[in-house]
Design a protein that fits this description.
This protein is of the alpha/beta class and 214 residues long. The chain has nine helices and seven strands; from the N terminus they run H-H-E-H-E-H-E-H-E-H-E-H-H-H-E-E. Keywords: Methyltransferase, Transferase.
Length: 214
């Protein structure tokens, strides 16, 4: 049995990367020869260990994944999962003090600058963070690199989190609350950067695009 099969079977109770999504992500990674991978938003680390397992089965590669420091409070958290699975050599978690965008700034400023084959983007979904975050991701993707956007149809108005916390949207206009902000980035920012829309996965709420060049 592959490492991927072991991981997806053993940890199927942990959200949010279910077996169907993990299998599609494996296809995308394998078909595009991605070995250096960036992930924005890992929550408990389920998606991270799935990617780590994919790379382990391929025998090469590493994932750098970023989330807020508050992710340490989850039970289990990503560090627990990496210790249990032995995939720490494939996955490097980074805990941001405030925002993943500042962590990416550090990566952009590093010499040599990291360059990734693929980014799985499941960070904060509001316009400001997603729009600016994707621009920063573009600076870290190799020419021809792949961007996988999660929650294409997310909106504050439809979010269970925000519905349960009405005060969290108090500063937003009604049109911004109702906007599908990740899809807005897909429709406006990515074409501006020259990305090709490769495919949408409506059942997964994903969009996959390719950076020009390569």
């Amino acid at each position: 049995m592959s490492v991927f099969d072991l991981i997806t079977s053993r940890y199927k109770h942990i959200p949010y990367m279910d077996g169907r999504r993990a299998a599609v992500l494996r296809e995308i990674i394998t078909e595009n020869g991605a070995r250096d991978i960036l992930e924005i938003g890992f929550y408990q680390g389920k998606s991270s260990i799935c990617i780590g397992a994919i790379l382990e089965d391929l025998g090469a590669g590493k994932l750098v994944t970023i989330d807020k420091g508050t992710a340490r409070k989850h039970e289990p958290n990503i560090l627990d999962l990496l210790e249990e699975t032995g995939l720490g050599h494939r996955v490097e978690p980074r805990f941001a003090h405030r925002s993943y965008t500042w962590e990416m700034q550090k990566m952009i400023a590093a010499q040599p600058r990291p360059q990734f084959d693929l980014c799985y983007f499941d960070g904060g979904h509001q316009w400001d963070g997603t729009g600016f975050g994707v621009v920063l991701v573009d600076m870290l993707l190799k020419p021809g690199g792949i961007l996988v956007l999660d929650d294409m149809n997310w909106s504050m108005a439809r979010s269970a989190y925000h519905r349960e916390r009405p005060g969290s949207v108090a500063g937003f206009s009604q049109d911004e609350r109702e906007a599908q902000t990740v899809r807005l980035v897909w429709r406006t920012v990515l074409p501006h950067l020259g990305y090709a829309h490769l495919r949408e996965y409506p059942a997964l709420d994903w969009g996959v695009a390719r950076k020009p060049g390569g």
